[in-house]
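#data-curation
PF: Archiving a pair of folding outputs for the training set. Convention for this channel: one message per protein, sequence first, structure tokens after, nothing in between. First:
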Amino acid sequence: MHTGRIDMVGGTGFEPVTSAMSTQTGAQQLDSYLSHMGLRGLSEHYVNRVSEFLTRYIRHAPQVNPDSATSFLRTFLNRKPNTRARYATYLKGFLRHLGMTLDLKVKVPRQLPSLRYSQIWCMSRVRIRRRSC
């Protein structure tokens, strides 16, 4: 039977999932989200990377909301599109956990598949001899 409570990893017990989330500080909300990620079985390395990024966000933002998340993402316009998309995913998950939505899409260019040395060598031979390998 579901009671509307979640188990807090490393916490003192259960925390009700109600409007209490809105009265928590940003650091408490972050701890709650990271505990949730741990319960889902995500890798420790991934949780640490998300934690590092979201800790920077909590320090930067006066309040946790979609507007502050968008302004925080603007500080990373000098980064590659894949990095910006990853950061947006981190923030979307955090805000979704708090019951908010971040309507933002980062366009990521298609990447070509990597070529092996043998494929490159074969293509160079085709150019020289005008026949297939």
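PF: Second:
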Amino acid sequence: MQADEQQDDADTEERGIECGHADFKLIADEEDRYESGVAMTSNARRTMWQMALGLICLGLLVMGLLVLVRYRDDISGERVRESLRATVMPTPEANAAVRAMPDYEEAVEALGSGNFERVLSRVGVMELHVEGSSATRYMAAQAYDGLGEAEAAREAIDLAAERSPDDVEILYFRGRLLQALGDEGATAVFEHLVRVDGNVAEAWHELGNLYLGSSRDEEAMAAYERALDLERGHMGARDGLARIFEARGLPEEAQSILEEGYELDPDNAEACLRLSMFYCRHGDLEKGGTYALEALHAAPKSARAISWLASVLEKQGNKAGALAMVEEALAKAPDDPSIALQAGYFLAKSGRPARSIMVLKRVLEAWPQNDAALLLIGSNYMAQNRYIEAREYFEKVVAIKPDRLEAWEGLAEVCRILEERAAAESAMERVTLLRGEAGD
């Protein structure tokens, strides 16, 4: 029996050992699984961080590429202006290098098609490679001028002229731009141009116009005659001489010089236009109309010829015909402020104030201080009983032209309607003063 008990104890001990081994194995397996889980978690976390880091790097790379692309393809505005202020010494080699670049050809094509923003984009790219080239600055000036940014155009062309002071194209563009801005420096620019190259007829013509505008008639005549020596059919120069003859009371000489130009080339629309204008100035509306029609026949797509015919028809009392023609001219040249001004005037006289205002605001986009456009807009608002807007535009006119009688009359009337007594009385005092000076 004791032997049986000992055997039972031995069996129990053996089972305990086996259980212990089993428990130890279970524990070991749990530890393996835990370590494996920790390792898997660690690997997952590492993979996640690697993916996040990769995404961040990819994002930064994309952003960098976008910045580079934008900097290459959309350089314009102030960034172009800053690059154009670079002080790298320009040389003929620098301009040659620019003109050899594909971007230059793209810019030339864009300039020809009127895509001025694209021109500025290409200019910016070229400046990254060859700074200080007068060729890029001249191109930027043309683009800014096309966009109506006169001051930016002036800055760019001034920089171009600094680098290439004797470049005829740059001088001519600069002179015309200053002339359009009313800058007296235009005369000096054209005087320098004709010293650099005295064989540019158009430069002599523009110089003659500037002299004539400054009451330097003798110098103007000499400049116009020099233009005609170079180009006998230059009708602008002939017209300038004709005006001088007319001012001196010599209409026969004026008529003769214009008719001579017409005889040189009867199909020249400009010759027809100048003769038409001459006859209209002297009250011969029949001949004026005949030559206006000839001008349109010679250049049927010319907005200027259509516009002038509209003026002649209006002088002849054909208001409906004049309005139809000026609308046609406006359709052909929607960005021409002079045609828009004429159209606005005809529309106002035809009792279409809303359409007139819309057209005249195109004028102000190009000529923000054009007192004629501002006055017409004010009058149109008066016709619509929009007195607050009318007063605003009349006030703009008198701020620009303090002696513009019609604007003071409009301002006095609108202030009276708005019951602004003090302002109305002040405006009427100005009206009385200006009428007295005019002898009315």
